[in-house]
Amino acid sequence: MLKRRDIFEEACEHLVGGVNSPVRAFKAVGGTPFFARRAKGCQLYDARGKSYLDYVMSWGPHILGHADADLTRALKRAAESGTSFGVPTEREVELAKLVKEAFPSIEKVRFVSSGTEAVMSAIRLARGFTGKPKIVKFDGCYHGHSDSLLVKAGSGGATFGVADSEGVPSEIAKLTLSLPYNQIEPVERLFKSQAHEIACLLVEPVAGNMGVVLPEKDFLKKLRELCTRYQILLIFDEVITGFRLAYGGAQELFGTQADLTCLGKILGGGLPLGAFGGKNEIMMKLSPEGDVYQAGTLSGNPLATACGIAVLKKLRRREIYRNLEQKKEQLLKPLRALMAEKGYPLQVNAIGSVFTFFFTKQSVKDFETAKTSDTSRYAKFFHSLLEKRIFFPPSQFEACFLSQAHHTRYINQTIEGVRKGLQKIFC
Question: Is 311 found in the same domain as 327?
């Protein structure tokens, strides 16, 4: 049987970096990644059959747990009828109705194949609808790898963007302005001076890609007010938060509606599926009704929509959200008590069924404070848990995800593993 390192070395001969998405390479924490063969519930099994208690959960989609029986049956039935047709299906209509039911701000939907594609398309639509070229995002909020969004802020409160990646033309990067998350004053100043050029403001209502960072009180409400006042479209990237924090996502939880909403992850039940949607007057600018072009061969794929329908029908009963909140408290309450007792320089940000351990003394409320985290300590923490067969994200700046399958015995196992891991690091 091949060892983990042997499999990875072979993968590196055929795949760039041995992986198909960078974080999977374990570069941020060191060591060699394991290769998954199967999963069930909250257990992930590697190529050698070794099991791990999973808190990555495919980066969020598996709110019901891996290989949920209802989703598996729906997928099997759909596959037996064909995997792709290139013409519309009734399932697309059924899933669209469910999305609209969950998100009152969405009057029309367009399905795509990923969250990245959803956000990229929503931005194009916003530019086409408003006739303005610039977009605004926030430092540390990740919205996929399209050219306009691989941008970080300059050295001021609001400067022209500088690309984080080679291959992004400076002319494109300069159309993206990045501001500090959770601060309203820079948004007000920017809108006063450049609103006539800004098509949209894009935000993760709860940041999940610098680790979990919650919005400050009234932050989202004030963004809504400013966008309305200056006639700038407000786009919520709910790829992570949609159907995760509540059935209606962050918009339901915080009582603030967006002009356009981007969805993914849970929406497809673990299959490649994304969506963007919003008000009729905006969405009707999209082809074939309007002149903003967007298309995709696999958009509304019958396998993905079948899984999407199955998962949303289970989630709309809403009991699962109360259950997940209880699981989060069961896990984090004793760990927070331990951290306070020991005085560990550690913060835990959490909401609903997502959380992040930040190895810093500072309260984490934006990208700058998130970056004060001791990433070397996180790497040691990660590997101490992995030795105990507990799989946390292989990066300090990611979120952990709970699922319905994280039962009490697994939570207790995690508490003990984290306790020993912290003791090893700090003592």
Answer: no
> What digits encode the pLDDT tens for the residues 43-81?
999 999 999 999 999 999 999 999 999 999 999 999 999
Mean pLDDT, rounded, for 329-358: 97
Query: For 211-263, what is each residue's pLDDT tens digit?
Result: 999 999 999 999 999 999 999 999 999 999 999 999 999 999 999 999 999 99
Nearest to 99 by CA among 117, 111, 84: 111
Contact predicate 339/298, CB 8 Å: no
Give the domain range for residue 12: 4-67+318-426
Label residues 311-325 b or e (16+ Cβ within 10 Å = b). bbebbeeeebbeebe
State the Cα angle at 113 between 276 and 135, rounded to 5°. Answer: 45
Q: List the structure tokens of 169.
A: 């033309």
Q: In a 10 Å sphere around its CB, with 0-12 CB exposed, 13-18 middle and 19+ buried, how is residue 196 labelled?
A: exposed
Same-domain status, 192 and 114 = yes
Q: What CATH number is attached to the domain comprising 406?
A: 3.90.1150.10
In this prediction the pTM is 0.95
Residue 8 and residue 93 share a domain:
no
Residue 214 DSSP code = P
H or E stretch covering 415: helix 408-426
- Same domain (yes/no): 266, 364: no
Count structural domains, the chain: 2
Known catalytic residues are 142, 237, 265
Asked if 192 and 338 sit in the same domain, the reply is no
If asked whether residues 148 and 222 sit together in one domain, one would say: yes
